[in-house]
Please model this.
Amino acid sequence: MSSAVTAPALISRFRPLMLGAGVIGLIVFSSGIFFDRGQFFHSYLFAFIFWTGVSVGSLALLMLQHLTGGGWGLVIRRVLEAATRTLPLMLILFVPIVVGAHWIYPWTHPEVIAKSAALIEKAKYLNMPFFTLRAAIYFVVWLTLAYFLNRWSLAQDRGAGEQPTKNMSVLSGPGMVLFVLTVTFASIDWVMSLDPEWSSTIYGFIFVAAWSLSSLAFVIAVMAILSKHEPMNHVVAQLHFHDLGKLLLALVMLWAYFAFSQFLIIWSGNLPEEIRWYLPRTRGGWGALALVVVILHFAFPFLFLLSRSLKRNASKLVIVACLIIVMRLVDLLWMIAPQFNDGYFHISWMDVVAPIGIGGVWLATFLWQLGRRALLPINDPQYESVLEQAHASH
Model:
């Protein structure tokens, strides 16, 4: 690996800090199982879904980059690849979901299924053997895509000719289709089935947009740090942040479109079996939280990302990106937590500690993977043109 494109020492300094925070967070969080086992698994699911979203969303952005090209994708490719290599960790962390399914999903209780003819029919799909098999399929698809994209990218680094570049582009087309399908079904299995009697046809698309948005916001935050250090300070230019800011705006609008479309369709239909999901989430404390999400997850980022100068300023863009990351956590909590509290507003201390614990371990794994390869794909066909653009911009 060329010393000119290796990760800065900052990466190796941050890694033990993240790991330490993660381990301490997990120890504190694990104590919660002795106080409230149900809440422990509820909070665990919330944190797991968020960090899995960053990993899988990075896979989507990586494939999008291979399909579209452009300097914005080249400079963030190594960050995306490192994030996709955290997927084996998320596979391991899925095990507690299976173990604690009885405390998470109502459809694991025979007495609940027996009360509803609709649930008896849905039990053909919602049962633990099939649930576990489907989860295995999702992870196999994600891990396979990540494996080949990372393998061919490394081969490209080693000067294997044009074939690895072509392979990554060819795989990314069907890979994007598989991404949408697997994320749709995973969101239905892992989150929507928390209320097995309720359904929404647009639910999966909300998660497709949300996971991609979480990943992009995270990548922008990482790039804002890396761009201040060697070697990225000579490569990452204002135009790259401008492009990333435009994509961030597009994903904010896409997420808002899907989320509002679901609300509008259910509100206009006003059917008891459909509005039951929104009623507790639009009243009291959860209603106030919904308003916060509308303002800080959509209105504020939307207005600020319209500014060309803000998108080109890394120090300002990263503030919007970090806000979106926080609001993704808040929105996910708003979607999940009311299901476990009979609609009453309640946020447990475990809801705060769980994302920190899992996130610390995730970030330590990410930083470890980021430091294993060159930060730039120097043998990519677009590398020279991107470098020239950066020098012109600087």
